[in-house]
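We modelled the chain as a single entity of 115 amino acids. Its sequence is:
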Amino acid sequence: MRTRIEAVLNNKDAKAQDYFDLVNIYEFSQVTLQRDGESILSMDINEVNTWADKTFDFREKCTSTRFTVEESNIVSITGRMLDNEDTFLIEADLKDGSKLAVIIYHVDTIKTNKI
């Protein structure tokens, strides 16, 4: 497990930005949004920007595809390594009952981006 992931997992006061910043380190991630048990959004991402108004902008570089969520809409957020997989999972519960998941793949096997 990478040092930055361990630092976030060991920080009991980790915020959404701490988790979402991890996307910018790795090459391949995916964001999904589920409502009432059904997937309503799934897209590849490789960048998360945080705007001054605390909006998280999930996007894939070199495309115009993006998804945003305001920090104030996040009720809770957790992260964990998936058992026997080279994958880190971030899960957030939103105020409207939706569930946001960010899956970061190949966290131990692919060269990271320097930040």
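As a brief sanity check on the tokenised model: The chain has a mean pLDDT of 91. Residues 3-10 form the longest helix (8 residues).
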